[in-house]
């Protein structure tokens, strides 16, 4: 009989998990508390609790209690995939802002923000420069009287497109990853900073990183323009609030603030677990490869999508789900809980003594993480072998974008269409942009084009000239 798997949440992580269960002949039941997409799953069903069954150490089974329109139900599952996202609980650090309780304007968290309607003509203070802070400040900058964007650390602003107008995420290649592995992080940061400051000088725009801050990037195409136009004004961190104004760390005061929007992020939570699982799972370092809790004697509970990554999370959640379903089936093994707990305790002690940084707080490296998961399922592409067998494909896998097709070239879940998908991925990327076909349009040849065409002949001719005019060669030739 197929193992029954409860999939909690029908976002991208939940949908990939359902597919991976089906690929492995497991029987998924998806619970989604919203009713956004209808049909196949148990929609408008909230999972209230997930608890170990009394015989958990033998069976690894879970009791899952759900609620649908006020009606409670309990079902037994052989395994559980938690795909509830980690942006449900807003982080609202009001205690860090003296005087905020006196403030008479409107206060909200970015989670409550939907559209700029209702903010017209207001003076708005946005606190926190993450992706939400950047997006909301730019959007409101078009309608509000003034948007002030307060940041403690600053951030590097990356555009969605890069040189030549190509999508920046398509620039994540194995070749660049290889270079990054051999260069010290200081050198890498220096190169990146030079490149980013070439577009606009971050310091001049009030975005430069504060001394001692961690390297932080946000993605935003319009923030520099909004600052340039005066629609958004960068500010330091807030020292205190009065009834109507904000006093900043640099001593400046902004009067008549109507609205404060905290774009201060989220805290993870798993309200349906019992303690200590409930608290432990909120710490990424407690999770083996960000997926399996360290303290379970049976690996029948996985958390999918609970990671921060320097790249697309969608590709990673699919790989997590592929690995997890194979662990559930017993086709892949994870270390025993005693070993995982010993490692976790060691990490805890080192972090407490500040001898080690909590890596769980940083974004994981995209290709390293994906390759690591793929090596557990036997789906990591073997580049050397690929160069011998199929050099054209290997070239694209190494120098081209590291897309999810690469993990469908070999091993379980191999897809025959993967090769063609990789070789044609740029066509699909550019097709939606090329909506106007211009026959015989004049092409402005780039420097690299001229170098390619003329570089070799010019180099050969120069070498010939140098040889001919070299006094040494002349003297050698002149000798009898
Ligand atoms: C404002 C914002 C913008 C973002 N923009 C981007 C972007 O442009 N690109 C990008 O890659 N990522 C973006 N992200 C990150 C994005 O959230 C993730 O990439 C993606 O949504 C993660 O998918 P998920 O399935 O893991 O979680 P979610 O999409 O959050 O899905 C979780 C699902 O679980 C359900 N659920 C939760 N608890 C229960 C329960 N107890 N019972 C039943 N169902 C439950 C929820 O209703 C929800 O449908 C953004 C995040 C935020 C907050
Ligand atoms: N377009 C997109 O792709 C998009 C859009 C929105 C969100 N997202 C994703 O959604 C997730 C959440 O993003 P987010 O921007 O909401 O949160 P976030 O990335 O956690 O950023 C929150 C910011 O709030 C500030 N902050 C945190 N604690 C604070 C405190 N105690 N006091 C003052 N400031 C504090 C920090 O900025 P300072 O250091 O500057 O003060 C921090 O960078 C991320 O994964 C993000 O990538 C993506």
UniProtKB/TrEMBL annotation:
InterPro entries: FAD/NAD-bd_sf, Flavin_mOase, Flavin_mOase-like, Flavin_mOase_4, FMO-like. Its EC number is 1.-.-.-. The keyword Flavoprotein applies. Its cofactor is FAD. This is Flavin-containing monooxygenase. Belongs to the FMO family. It comes from the Eukaryota. The keyword Endoplasmic reticulum applies. It catalyses: trimethylamine + NADPH + O2 = trimethylamine N-oxide + NADP(+) + H2O; N,N-dimethylaniline + NADPH + O2 + H(+) = N,N-dimethylaniline N-oxide + NADP(+) + H2O; hypotaurine + NADPH + O2 + H(+) = taurine + NADP(+) + H2O; hypotaurine + NADH + O2 + H(+) = taurine + NAD(+) + H2O. Pfam families: FMO-like (PF00743). GO terms for cellular component: endoplasmic reticulum membrane. Keywords: Endoplasmic reticulum, FAD, Flavoprotein, Membrane, Monooxygenase, NADP, Oxidoreductase, Transmembrane, Transmembrane helix. It is found in: Endoplasmic reticulum membrane. Broad spectrum monooxygenase that catalyzes the oxygenation of a wide variety of nitrogen- and sulfur-containing compounds including xenobiotics. Catalyzes the S-oxygenation of hypotaurine to produce taurine, an organic osmolyte involved in cell volume regulation as well as a variety of cytoprotective and developmental processes. One of its GO terms (molecular function) is trimethylamine monooxygenase activity. The gene is FMO4. It is an enzyme of class 1 (oxidoreductase).
């Amino acid at each position: 009989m197929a193992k029954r798997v409860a999939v909690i949440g029908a976002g991208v992580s939940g949908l990939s998990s359902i597919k991976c269960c089906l690929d492995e002949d497991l029987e998924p039941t998806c619970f989604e508390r919203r009713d956004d997409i209808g049909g196949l799953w148990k929609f408008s069903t909230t999972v209230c609790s997930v608890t170990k069954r009394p015989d958990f150490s033998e069976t690894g089974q879970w009791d899952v209690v759900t609620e649908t329109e006020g009606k409670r139900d309990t079902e037994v599952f052989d395994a559980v995939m938690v795909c509830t996202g980690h942006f449900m609980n807003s982080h609202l650090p009001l205690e860090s802002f003296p005087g905020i309780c006196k403030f008479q304007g409107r206060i909200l968290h970015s989670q409550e923000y939907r559209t700029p309607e209702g903010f017209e003509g207001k003076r708005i203070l946005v606190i926190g420069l993450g992706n939400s802070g950047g997006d909301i400040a730019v959007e409101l900058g078009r309608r509000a009287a003034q948007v002030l964007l307060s940041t403690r650390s600053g951030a590097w602003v990356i555009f969605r497109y890069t040189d030549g107008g190509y999508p920046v995420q398509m620039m994540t290649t194995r070749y660049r990853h290889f270079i990054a592995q051999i260069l010290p992080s200081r050198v890498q940061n220096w190169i990146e900073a030079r490149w980013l400051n070439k577009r606009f000088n971050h310091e001049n725009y009030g975005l430069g990183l504060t001394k001692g801050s961690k390297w932080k990037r946000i993605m935003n195409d319009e923030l520099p323009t909004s600052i340039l136009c005066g629609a958004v004004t960068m500010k330091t961190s807030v020292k205190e609030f009065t009834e109507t104004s904000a006093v900043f760390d640099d001593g400046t005061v902004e009067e008549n603030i109507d609205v404060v929007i905290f774009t201060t992020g989220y805290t993870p939570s798993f309200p349906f677990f019992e303690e200590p699982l409930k608290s432990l799972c909120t710490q990424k370092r407690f999770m083996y490869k960000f997926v399996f809790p360290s303290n379970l004697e049976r690996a029948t509970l996985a958390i999918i999508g609970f990671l921060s990554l320097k790249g697309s999370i969608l590709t990673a959640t699919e790989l997590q789900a592929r690995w997890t379903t194979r662990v559930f089936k017993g086709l892949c093994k994870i270390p025993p809980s005693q070993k995982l707990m010993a490692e976790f305790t060691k990490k805890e002690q080192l972090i407490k003594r500040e001898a080690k940084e909590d890596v769980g707080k940083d974004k994981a490296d995209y290709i390293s993480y994906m390759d690591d998961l793929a090596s557990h399922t036997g789906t990591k592409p073997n580049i050397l072998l690929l160069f011998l067998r199929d050099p054209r494909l290997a070239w694209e896998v190494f120098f081209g974008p590291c897309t999810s097709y690469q993990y469908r070239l070999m091993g379980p879940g191999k897809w025959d269409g993967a090769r063609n998908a990789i070789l044609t991925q740029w066509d699909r990327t550019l097709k939606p942009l090329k909506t106007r076909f211009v026959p015989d349009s004049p092409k402005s040849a780039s420097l690299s084009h001229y170098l390619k065409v003329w570089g070799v002949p010019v180099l050969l001719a120069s070498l010939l000239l140098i040889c001919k005019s070299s006094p040494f060669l002349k003297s050698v030739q002149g000798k009898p």
